[in-house]
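User: Quick sanity check before I run a bigger batch. Here is a single chain. Can you write out its predicted 3D structure?
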Amino acid sequence: MGADGSGVEISKTAEGWAGDMGRNWLANLDRLEGMIDPIGAVALARADFQPGERVIDVGCGGGGTSLAIAQAVAPDGHVTGVDISSDLILSCGARATLSGLQNVSFVCADAGAAPINGAPFDRLFSRFGSMFFAEPKAAFRNLRGQVRDGGRIDLAVWAAPPENSWMQLMQQALKDLLPAPDGRPDPRAPGPFAFADTVWLGEVLAQAGFAEMDVAPCLRDLPVGGPGASAQDAATFVLSAMHIGNQVAPDRMPEAHARLAAAFAPHHVPGQGVMLAGKALLVSAVAA
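Assistant: Done. Predicted structure follows.
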């Protein structure tokens, strides 16, 4: 049995999202959403949601994408945002209330294992929330059961680390402050870049019952630390809000901060922030 009793093992990454990682995302919500919004906006435009559609938003995080989709499918459509973090889901509910939207609801669940009330949905969407399943093939079979026959899924996943300047710069700046890799890392292991290999992603989707996979690259400059952040702000954000900061020893934090700020400074654009290139893959497929 998995850690949730479902028969699907929950990865350490997923457990982290259910705990400290989810709380950390919430604490830095505006900056994190501001950083990935340039790609998220393109992903939503590509999905082209229509009034009346019923949508499940997998790994909805702080709920920003769910609220945007709810506006697109109104007045008769509905969005169900799903995330494994109870802290984030509680925040989403409050955010929805403040927005005045009546056609969105949020569920705390492991979308890779649990049946979601309201299934089957017309559409499935996920902005950087589909790469963390310990058993992706089993998880996507479960997701297939949440989508009606002929329904479309739209995923935004990160391209490989070498194609993401924001990640490469941080790793280079901190390389001798980070722990040495424990053997050769598995590029398909749960994590942000698990689906950078589109052959692997195609295999995962096909065995789950999705067809007609289409992949479009999306390259955008991302404001590290959120729009308007200074080089110092961006360094503080990385060390406090991103996983890479957890890998730096506490006594090396001042040095890490100085290194990051120096690395970010040449990329600071007045009025915009620290702008570094990010590349995602926008993936769509149809439930066969």
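The longest strand covers residues 210-224.

User: Great, the batch can go ahead then.
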